[in-house]
Structures are given as structure tokens and as C-alpha cells.
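pinging the channel bc i need a second pair of eyes. not urgent but kinda urgent?? the chain im working w is below, pasted from the shared doc
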Amino acid sequence: MQLQRLGDDEIHPFRSERIYRENDAWYFDTREGPAPGPFQDQAMAKQALAVFLAKACDALPTHQRGSVIEIVGLEDGVQHLVEELMTFFQARRESGDNAAFAWANNRIAELRRDWDIQWQQKRIRVLYYAMESIEAGRNG
């Protein structure tokens, strides 16, 4: 299935992998500039990509968010992570960091009840990753 990417006027028939390995480090490509990274493994690169995509979706006007959330990250296999992060960033935008962190910690506790399910583990890890990146930004 070919999807039109956000901001593109037409469907592109070919697209290389966005997440890639170079010199034992992992990166992902964006149209916005240099490749973010390096990341220690592919899972970390996917988490960072999900945060990047969720932030980009959150920055869209409200009327556009709903239509893109269903496809953002689909081609990269991170759609479920972007979806999870959208609520986190919405809470952050509307109520601030403390409310977003409270929501994320409650959501993590809820997800831990089903810890054996692999996609739950990935959702937990990406929420932790997003919170850690915000904390690093505050302290950096």
C-alpha cells in the first residue's frame, strides 16, 4: 500500500528505509534536516522516531491531527507508539509537564498489568523515553 506522506502533494512509489545502521550506530532520516542519532540500537531509534513524529503531529492545527494520526508511523512500524505518545503530548500542551508526567505514569502502571504482551512493553518504553527526553531538556 502506498500512502501520501504529510506535506507531500503526490504519492511516491519508492521510499528507502527511514531507520538505518551506519558504523555500528542507528539513525533515522527526516525531511527536516540532519539524521537524528546516533542511537545504541534499532529499538532506541524507533522510540526516538515515534517521539519525533508525535511532536510533529501535535504541532499540527487541531483539525489536521485526527486525520493524520491514523497513518503517521505506519510505514515505519511505530504507529502504535505515536498513538500512545499523542495523548502524552496533548496533556503536556494543555496542562503542562507535571500533568503529562502524571498521565504517563498512570498509563505505564495500567500497561504493566499486561506486561507479557510485547506491544505493551514497547508502549511503556516509549513513554519513559519521551519523559526522559523532556527531563534532559529541562536540565540541559
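so The longest strand covers residues 19-22. and The chain has one domain: 42-139. — does that match what u expected or am i reading it wrong
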